[in-house]
Amino acid sequence: MKRRGHGSSMKGRGHGSSMKGRGHGGSSMKRRGHGSSMKRRGHGSSMKGRGHGSSMKGRGHGSSMKGRGHGSRHGSSLKGRGHGISMKRRGHGSSMKGIGHGSSMKGRGHGSSMKGRGHGSSMKGRGHGSSMKEERTW
């Protein structure tokens, strides 16, 4: 697994989501501003991010995603519900794909790159627009 930038790489399996943080912020997942607060609900994963990353919210078996900040500002706001979500975005935003009960998300450029399988969500952050990271772009 390779990661670029100061983002944090997160992996989750099972009904919940297990998150691991690397980089400048260490494994601290709760921070104000550049960090992201994550909550687990049901079989999916509920994610909240503020700052330069994208804000994601998920409930039930699927995950509904909302993008805010520098990461997904260039893209459009995406919302998904149900057992699976298939979302794509171009440009500096993040493109998201969902299959099965979990949500599989992929992002390119300055957005956030996320991958998830099964009931949980496995997330990977790359570049400057990951919500699950602690970076300093100034």
TrEMBL record:
It comes from the Eukaryota. Residues 44-66 have a biased composition (Low complexity). Residues 29-43, 80-92 have a biased composition (Basic residues). Residues 1-138 are annotated as: Disordered. This is Uncharacterized protein. It comes from Oncorhynchus mykiss (Rainbow trout).
